[in-house]
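Shipment paperwork, digital attachment
Item: protein structure file
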Amino acid sequence: MSLLSRLTRHAQVTLIGVAAGGVAATIAVVPSLADSDSLKIATVAAQQETAYGPEPEADSKLVTQADALSTMAAATLSPDTMINRARTWLTADNGAPVPYSMERTWKDGYRQDCSGYVSMALGLGAPGLNTVGLADPRNGVTTRLSSMSQLKMGDLLIDYSTTDGDFRHVVIFEKWADTSHSAYWAYEQRGTYGTTHRQLSYGIGSDNYDPFRPVKLGDGGGGGELPAPGVSWPILQSGSEGADVRSAQRLLTARGYTLEADGIFGPNTRSAVIQFQKSQSLAADGVIGPNTWSKLIKTLQYGSSGQAVMAAQTQLNVYGYGLAVDGEFGSKTKSAAVAFQQNHDVQVDGIIGPETWRALLGTR
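Attachment content:
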């Protein structure tokens, strides 16, 4: 199937290639946005940014052969371990993301494209499978899920088709971004940007992404279900957006830094994070990870007030509690905290301490 047919199937962008005198012109035609305008625009933009490419085929020396799928075949991997492995590439290049490449391997031996990255996170043999290999049931790496609603932390969204062009991609599902499941947080390796942690909507609309579960992945939180006791803190860095960023900004403001709680992790937020990390004798990399979160949060209870309470109210509202974000820890906020704790296997005391914060930030 041609590239034109492929993109028509996606029903999002039609590209018409016109070659004349050795010069190719490309025209983008966007269909009428009558329904779900924002989702379609976001999906189109995300696909353009991803820079899919004709990744190596199965018989390439840059692709792990079936008889070399070593580590994962030998032991079950926990979702937390997989996500932590994925996070390492966010800062592996001297504090920067691992650059994207379909022809090169990183220092750990894994190919620097999307499927090489996922292979690394799963602990497969280097240099890693391609997307087709990840989805192929004969390799015993994944099993296809029947619906997006089944997604849990560590699952994969894969566009693996080989019948409609070479444009293939795979991302790692971390957690839902909201209770309506209109977007989710994911880790991906994409062109131009390298390793990225951001909100995506692949697979939710009309596209070729299907949900898969690694067969050796153990139980753990995500997908709106009860979190595992070791549920992970989110990783926030330059480019991150959403409620978690807004809460981090409010917690930083509570620590004395002047920031707008706009939910966008830009230069001012990064600068404040670095200053805070230095003040706490942490690695000053500008990335909010587990160590920074544990120093940044404040224990809150009935009668507390201020920006930290606003952060907690913001997170509780992600789960649909509908609180006024007024910075006052009153009876409604305590009731919401108790209900959240009851629903997420956290000690039920109405106090928002480290474990409740971690559950608020680390699950959806």
